């Protein structure tokens, strides 16, 4: 090597999330199950050094369940995933298993299974002998067509509908060509771009790096699909490209002559192998190349705010490249305060994101990051603005404490006194816990980190706004919907939008009622008609019965003179008895028509509430009159 050698490490080199997760889960499983025999179904990852290390820890590799001779066994499902039938067989044989399938591969399994069940022909773009592709095919009854070249699309039979997916480590450029050819040939093609973002980013960055260096080293297993693709890309751009499995494979003479060396690694290559390669290179000329290697990464400090790029995500986590030797992870609870939101609705791959470092190493080599902490710092200004402008802000009641509750707003804890939870004082605040509420900030002290909020002030503001809107738009005769708030002996009060109106008992029903509770109850939503408005005295008269058909208007051809009907006695007068024919329709039985005998008063013969038979002797719908007779019923 010359007097100085420059080492450039591909920022996307090494373990991808799926591999890192599989290795971490396997090591954790070993530690947590000391009395079980651990097996991996096939090599856990395509890296000989990792699988040999696992073997020293007592983990055996199998390729068939019949190879297991132990009852107390546990099977690790590798990151490539397996066919659905194999999982069923494992369960049927009574074995426990830990599923280390990469989340991005699991997503393909779900897509393929769903589309297959919907009648789609599944087409997988990838290597038919690769374990990931074999596993995917097993989620559509092994009926998929597998292609790895755009020319193969032309040979496909025509299908009414197809579903196209790709092996996660497939070449992005080749995938694009195949995808476009499929779009041209098939009218109804559901295409899912399932190439892992980490794979895409790694292929893109190695393309850039290989053009800048004298020598390119690609580190990874000789049977690793993604490593082989990296080697092919780099070799095309840099003739001095070497595929290494370990430091022992280093081309010493070529390295000694190089001034600039680029290093990348496959998704299954652990960081310690990369370091071994660097250390071996140092031995060639006693140069401190490791220092150059370490310089290629930025340093990190707890609490530091950094800007990174989203490289991948799933339902619970976001993976961020922050230019450090390890990727950063933002868990969903550190990303947003609204846990009902989907991660995919908040960030996209390629987004730049400002985060704070929570932990340099979470125990699995990842940097733990938080977007919420960065947002919380900024959100003090949002609270200050809301306080000065007297605007409301959304919050969540996180905790009920003595004298009130803790309301979290944009990640900042504020206090709300018990008297400010509602317009009316609430004795028991427990029902508010975890509620999303809008509040007004009534006290703000940024220096002391003290914020007092009020839901009551917000409600009063809203009530006033609605009241002003009501009085601006309300007209006599207008139909509106309101909510019954309280009932009295003389009527029901209804909230019609920030103001209460009264439905007098006489306006509730066409039929005679003794109490408003016979018709409505608090909480009922009712349509009413505005009968009168008095803004000066803030009085509103409402009618409920006006929204219903007037009973006499429905009687045409329903009753005829001579009909015998059943009625209910409702009240007496000196000249006879009034009876209810149906709700809202009363008829008169004159005292002379009550009995064949002479009687002094109707109560001598009849009782209030009694049901009797009468004969219609006259009916006048326009004048709302009906004459009835008891005497003539039997004549």
Strand content: 25-35%
Q: For the largest beta sheet, what order do the strands appear in spatially?
A: 13-14-15-17-16
- The overall pLDDT, averaged over residues, is 85
- Under CATH, the topology of the largest domain is which? Cobalt-precorrin-4 Transmethylase, domain 1
Main attributes of the structure:
27% helix, Cobalt-precorrin-4 Transmethylase, domain 1, alpha/beta, five-stranded antiparallel beta sheet, elongated, Rossmann fold, 635 residues
What is the structure about, briefly put?
This protein is an alpha/beta fold.
Fold and architecture overview:
With 635 residues, this protein is of the alpha/beta class. The chain is 27% helix and 30% strand. It has 15 helices and 32 strands. The radius of gyration is 40 Å and the shape is elongated. The mean pLDDT is 85.
């Amino acid at each position: 090597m010359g007097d100085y050698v420059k080492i450039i490490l591909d920022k996307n080199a090494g373990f991808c999330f799926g591999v890192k997760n599989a290795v971490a889960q396997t090591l954790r499983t070993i530690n947590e199950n000391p009395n079980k025999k651990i097996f991996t179904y096939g090599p856990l990852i395509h890296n000989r050094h990792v699988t040999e290390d696992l073997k020293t820890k007592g983990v055996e590799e199998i390729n068939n369940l019949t190879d297991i001779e132990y009852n107390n066994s546990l099977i690790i499902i590798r990151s490539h995933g397996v066919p659905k039938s194999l999982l069923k067989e494992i369960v049927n044989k009574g074995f426990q298993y830990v599923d280390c399938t990469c989340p991005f591969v699991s997503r393909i399994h779900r897509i393929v299974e769903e589309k297959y069940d919907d009648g789609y022909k599944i087409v997988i773009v990838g290597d038919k002998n690769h374990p990931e592709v074999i596993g995917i095919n097993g989620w559509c009854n092994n009926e998929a067509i597998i292609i790895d070249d755009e020319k193969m699309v032309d040979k496909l039979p025509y299908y009414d509908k197809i579903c196209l997916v790709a092996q996660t480590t497939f070449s992005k450029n080749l995938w694009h060509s195949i995808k476009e050819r499929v779009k041209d040939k098939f009218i109804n093609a559901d295409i899912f771009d399932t190439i892992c973002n980490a794979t895409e980013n790694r292929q893109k960055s190695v393309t850039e790096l290989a053009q800048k260096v004298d020598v390119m080293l690609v580190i990874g297993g000789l049977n690793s699909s993604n490593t082989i693709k990296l080697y092919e890309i780099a070799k095309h751009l840099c003739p001095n490209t070497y595929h290494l499995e370990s430091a022992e494979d280093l081309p010493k003479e070529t390295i000694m002559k190089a001034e600039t060396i680029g290093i990348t690694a496959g998704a299954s290559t652990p960081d310690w192998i990369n370091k071994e390669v660097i250390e071996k290179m140092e031995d060639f000329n006693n140069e401190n190349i490791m220092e150059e290697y370490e310089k290629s990464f930025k340093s990190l400090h707890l609490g530091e705010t950094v800007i990174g790029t989203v490289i991948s995500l799933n339902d619970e986590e976001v993976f961020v490249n922050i230019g450090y030797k390890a990727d950063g992870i933002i868990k969903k609870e550190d990303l947003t305060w609204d846990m009902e939101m989907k991660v995919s609705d908040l960030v996209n791959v390629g987004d730049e994101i400002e985060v704070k470092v929570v932990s340099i190493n979470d125990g699995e080599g990842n940097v733990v990051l938080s977007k919420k902490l960065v947002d919380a710092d900024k959100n003090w200004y949002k609270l200050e603005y809301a306080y000065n402008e007297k605007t409301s802000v959304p919050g969540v009641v996180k905790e009920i404490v003595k004298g009130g509750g803790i309301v979290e707003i944009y990640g900042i804890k504020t206090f709300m006194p018990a008297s400010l939870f509602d317009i009316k004082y609430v004795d028991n605040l427990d029902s508010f816990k975890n509620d999303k509420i809008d509040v007004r900030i009534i006290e703000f002290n940024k220096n002391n980190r003290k914020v007092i909020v009020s839901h009551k002030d917000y409600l009063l503001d809203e009530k006033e706004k609605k009241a002003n809107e009501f009085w601006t738009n309300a007209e006599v005769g207008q139909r509106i919907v309101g909510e019954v708030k309280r009932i009295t002996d003389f009527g029901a009060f209804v909230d019609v939008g920030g103001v209460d109106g009264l439905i007098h008992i006489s306006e509730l029903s066409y039929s005679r009622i003794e109490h408003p509770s016979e018709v409505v109850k608090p909480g009922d939503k009712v349509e009413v008609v505005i009968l009168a408005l008095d803004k000066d005295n803030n009085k509103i008269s409402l009618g409920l019965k006006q929204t219903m058909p007037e009973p006499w208007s429905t009687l045409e051809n329903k009753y005829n003179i001579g009909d015998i009907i059943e009625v209910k006695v409702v009240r007496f007068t000196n000249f006879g008895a009034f009876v209810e024919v149906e709700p809202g329709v009363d008829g008169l039985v004159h005292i002379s028509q009550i009995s064949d005998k002479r009687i002094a008063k109707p109560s001598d013969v009849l009782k209030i509430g009694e049901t009797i038979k009468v004969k219609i002797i006259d009916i006048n719908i326009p004048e709302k009159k009906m004459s009835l007779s008891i005497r003539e019923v039997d004549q």
